[in-house]
What we know:
This protein has 327 residues and is mostly helical. The chain has two domains: 4-187 and 295-324, Rossmann fold; 206-280, Tyrosyl-Transfer RNA Synthetase (Orthogonal Bundle). The protein has helices spanning 17-30, 42-49, 56-69, 87-96, 101-105, 108-115, 125-128, 130-139, 153-170, 209-217, 240-246, 249-260, 266-280, 282-292, 295-324, and strands spanning 4-9, 35-40, 77-81, 145-148, 178-181. Strand 1, helix 1 (17-30) and strand 2 (35-40) form a beta-alpha-beta unit.
Amino acid sequence: MEEVVVSGMRPTGKLHLGHLHGVLTNWADLQARHRCYYFVADWHALTTEYESVADMRESVIEMVIDWLAAGLDPERSTLFLQSEVKQHAELYLLLSMVTPLGWLERNPTYKDAMSQAGGKDLSTYGFLGYPILQTADVVLYRANHVPVGADQVPHLELAREIVRRFNHLFGLKLPEPQALLTGTSKLLGTDGRKMSKSFNNAIYLSDSWPVIEEKVRNMVTDVQRPRRNDPGHPDLCVLFPYHKLHSTPEAVAPIERDCRAATLGCREDKELLLESLRRTLPAYQERRREYEAQRERVWEILREGSARARAVAETTLREIREAVRVN
Length: 327
């Protein structure tokens, strides 16, 4: 039987190279081997961004354009909008009835986010209970696997515990989703911090070439190499992981060797990276321009995907309603 993969992403607008290598490339690979459901997690966005929803629609379309340009195929994967599949909300409610409060309060992600709220009021039920909504997201499609990084495994274990308890109470046999461990992107932002829109340090997939050139040429590189004739440290340099992902394998080894030997300076290194990006990004950017010019078609892809997702979700929910006796 074909195995099912489910994953979602909050609508953050235009995506950057970190998203491409950390998520999208993996999603595109998975759709060749599994039945995949990839959704825009707009309800999840409300758990932390409920005060700033004015740009939600634009953020959705820009993100999905990046998905399609990165190779997600609506003929092979179901791409949909979470809020268009109301069954997510219904199962979220039913699961919340049996999930112990202590399980949610012990969630390490919850504790970390509360301590780093930065002025946001996250003392809401929606934020506390979002792992239950995440569980509903995957259970509705009887997901066998959820692609996650190692740091998200405890989160998925909570989902498995919720499903296990729900199955035990109501005699169901819903699959407990398994973690599909994925490599995390090693790319840092242009200033050496985590690549993030909030830090203004990201190279976006939609950036024009003049913008990309400016960002690369201004990148922080090896902070332990203050002079041109000092030996470099590729393993500590912000630039080198970009080469591993965009330069040819034949080019990476000489770059590492010459950097360590101080025969390649950071300025020349950046020019080599720009050459690699000129080779690897144009095909993506051309596809993006094509979808950008067909925005209504992108919305249609989401509508069609949401209709397919609703049909699958409703089949699962009918069985659950029968077991819970609320049919």
